Every structure is written in C-alpha cells, then in structure tokens.
Records
---
Amino acid sequence: MRAEDDTRKCPPKEEEEEEEERNERNGFDLSMYDRTEIEAIEKRCGVELESVDPNAISLAVARAKELANGFFKSGEYEKSVEQYTAAIAGARKDKTLWRNRAAARLQVGERLEAIHDSVKAVELDEKDAKSWYRLGTSLMANHEYLKAAQALNTAAKLMPGSKDIEERLAAARGMYEEERKRKERGEIAEERFGLEIEKGEERRSESGDD
C-alpha cells in the first residue's frame, strides 16, 4: 500500500502530528493558520505554503516590519497597518507585530480592531507588560475605562516603576471615576424628573384637569 493511502487513513490526532512534523521540516510554522486561511493565501499567491522557502518568508517579514515601522514614524498610519498585516501573515506568533499593528490602528480610528490585536498579543505572552499596556490604551480609546484600568494595572505589576504606565493607569482610573459619578448624577436627575412628573399628574388629578 502506498504511503499516501496510509496518511488518508490516519486518525485526526496522527494527522495533526504529521502536519506538525512537516512544518518543523519545512521551517515555516502553519500551526496558527486554519485551513481556510491557508487556502486563501495559497490561492492569492499561487503557491503552496509548505513549498515556500522559510528563509524567504523570514526576509519578507523583516522587510514588511521595517516598512511598517518607518510608515508609523512618518505618520503614514494606514500604510503602517498594511505592512504590519503583511508581516503578521508570515509570523503569526510575533507578539510585537500584533501590538504594533494595534498602535497603528488606533491612529486611524480602528479601536475595536486595536483591541483585538492587543488581546492577541496578550494571548501570545501573558507576561509581556507592553502587550497589556497596549490593551489598556486601546480600551481607553474605546471608552472602556474600567477594563483599561485593569489591563494597565497588570502592566504596572509586570513592569514596576514605569512612569508612562503609571500615568496611563491613573488617567484610566480617573476617567472611570468621572464616568461613574456622571452616571450616578444622571440616575438621580432621572429619578427627580420622574417624581416631578408623578406630582404633576397627581395635582392635575386632584384639580379635575383632563
């Protein structure tokens, strides 16, 4: 029996192990891509990813990252996002690329996308203070101050003594407190407004007004 026939009959677990072995031999890690993503990339590029030279991938990622950093520094944030996206396509496990794209996305108003990228960076390394910091700033931009303070507090614990993190944390806590007080004042005002309406209706009822 041919080897390829044996492969088709392998149970799912063995298929996964064989795929990991192929990735290791190839040098290009496909483990963070699902099959749909791989097929889409292969169709767009006209190549099979397993046949791509891993050194070529590494060079392409490095070049895209270099361009992305340059565009960010020059204020060309949309181009920066595009190049970080290209770099991520070849290095899905690079937390720096995810959090840097989050920073670029914040600059073009893509707040939810920035939160997504920041979460991805944190998932890749929960001990990375910079990823938690980026998550905190992304949440602040989306006016989620309590969650922002929690993320920044984690960053502060991982990187004690950072003035920037401490300042952002204080700002997030302050904004959350202001928001909480505004909501309380709003609820009190609504309650008073409701009571005034009830009193007015009672007075009209007592006077016989329709």
Note: The first helix runs from residue 3 to 8.
---
Amino acid sequence: MKRHTLATLFALVAVACSQSQKPAVIAPPPDAPVQAEIVRRYDFLMGAGRAGEEVVTQRGNERRAHFEFNDRGRGPKTDSVIVTDSRSIPLSISNKGNDYFKAAVDEQFAQGTWSSEAEKGHSDNRDAIYASMNGAPDETGIIAKALLAAPGHKLALLPAGEASIRKLGDVTLDHNGLKQHVACYAISGFDFTPSPVWLDDSNELFGSFPHPRRVGPRRGAAAHRRAEDME
C-alpha cells in the first residue's frame, strides 16, 4: 500500500465528496486531568540544507503538529490534531492546510470514518490504523509505536493493506557530551521497500530517512552522526 504525496518523495538526512459530512475529531473529556505539555521540534532537510520544520505539541494522548517546508516555492503547510488510544492507534486525525502543490487539504478521520479531497470510507475494524494522505511526519512515529505494541508487530491499514515493523539496530549518538540512544526500525507495507524510521527510548520519533515522511533529527538531540552510518 502506497499513500504518499509528492512532498514525501525527497531524500532527507536527519480528501471525499465536498457534500459529505465530516467526521468530528475526538477530544478528551472536559473533566480529564490536566496533562503536562511536551514540545518536540524537528528540522526538515533537503539535500544539504534545512528546508522546513515540524513542531509537535503533545498533551496526554493528543498531539498537535505543524509541518511545512519550502521547495522552490512549493511545499506543504499543514496543521494536524491526532488523538490516540493507549496502543498509539489514532482515534481521530484532522489535517488542514495545503499540500505540496498548494491545493487545499481537509482530511478527517474519526470513529472509523475517513474523508479527504481524494476519497472517503468507513471501517468497523478498531484494531486497524488509518494512514492519512497528508499527515505530518510525526504520524510515522505514531504508526511505528502502534506496530511495536501490536501482536506480531503487525496491523491492518485503512483504507487497505497491512503494515509491519522490525528492528534493524541501535546506536548511542554523542555530540559534545550530549548523548541520545536511538533505534532503527524498518516499516513494511507503505512502499515497494521497507521504510526506515528512528525512535528514541520512549518509542517517539527521532527521525525518518528518507520516507514515508522524512524529518529529523530532532532538535536538541545528539545527532552529529549521519543517518547513513546507522543503517
């Protein structure tokens, strides 16, 4: 199953009928306890330079991600809200903004129903994971985390397909005394070849190189070692 925009085809180092009703994004209950806010910032690299960024703000099981990059005037600019369950499977996803060619993006998923400029559908399989068309790179980390928690490290994909994950290796990066242990995993099911992704010890995204959504390394982490040296 291949669900990538052209915006995700660059090498890096470090939706639905307009008249259909949009599914509502699932929000935490109003009486839920206040969760600490965690902010993670990533650089989006093209060639040898920084072309954009992703900023992820997480509070409990809700994540808000702003993602944009500039490629000679092209490039996406999206804001995403993702709510996950305890298994890291998204309960709801909202992606809004513009895609690589500046076309409007309004992609929604909730309660097994999805809609976008390209398609719409529904599934009653609550163990499947929806792979959005215009999602932020952090969605790759969410998918990886869900796969690691799943039996046999496999999950059905929505609208169709199956994804799996396997560990390739790990390394401790050291930059001026700042150390960061990361593990490299290969996700299968999105392309003709497995897609590598790097996670930290909490199974949060450290970087993805070069696809399905390439971003990294995370700012503030020890990341002077080139990603190619870790493969």
Note: The mean pLDDT is 82.
